[in-house]
Amino acid sequence: VVPRNFKLLEDLETFEKGGDPRISAGLKDPCDLLLIDWHASIIGAPGTPFQNRIYSLSIHCPPNYPMSPPIIRFSNKINMRCVDQRGMVSISSISNFQWQTATSTLPRLLIALADEMKNANNRRLTQPNDSEIYS
């Protein structure tokens, strides 16, 4: 198993190099040597009720990461099957994704969330106004 900080440094490098244009992320505090708290964004999927929206998220990587998955919360209100009424993401409810200690990464997780916006069950859901945020 890759040590926690090495795995998170790899994720940070992946985000800094770019990759999937729908997602981005970085440390909330660039001086955070433990790589605990992150901010992220996902661009809504075209052709869905999520299109033309940029969703902000916070990511908390616990001390036992990657043995335990990160805690993810949307800042903008969103209706998706894997997001509760407080904006918390249930990683186990994301279609076609399972957190695996050895292979899961923050970029893969955000890509899975972006892909989830295309899921037919989520496309049917009415979305809140752009300006609504979780308190």
Describe it.
The chain is an alpha+beta fold and 135 residues long. The chain has a single domain (4-120), classed as Roll (Ubiquitin Conjugating Enzyme), CATH 3.10.110. It is built from three helices and four strands; from the N terminus they run H-E-E-E-E-H-H. It has a four-stranded antiparallel β-sheet with strand order 1-2-3-4. The mean pLDDT is 95. It comes from Octactis speculum. Residues 3-135 form the UBC core domain. This is UBC core domain-containing protein.
Secondary structure layout:
Elements: H1 4-17, E1 23-27, E2 37-43, E3 54-60, E4 71-74, H2 106-116, H3 120-123
Total number of domains: 1
Could you tell me the number of beta strands?
4
Q: Which bin fits the share of residues in helices? A: 10-25%
For the record, what is the CATH homologous superfamily label? Ubiquitin Conjugating Enzyme
In CATH, the architecture is Roll
State the distance separating the first and last CA atoms: 37 Å
Q: What spatial order of strands do you see in the largest sheet?
A: 1-2-3-4
The proportion of strand residues reads 15-25%
State the major sheet.
Answer: 4 strands, antiparallel
Helical stretch tally:
3
Query: Mind telling me the C-alpha Rg?
Result: 14 Å
Low-confidence stretches: none
Given this structure, which CATH class is correct? Alpha Beta
Shape: globular
Instruction: Decide which structural class fits the backbone.
Output: alpha+beta
- Strand and helix order: HEEEEHH
Average pLDDT score:
95
CATH topology: Ubiquitin Conjugating Enzyme
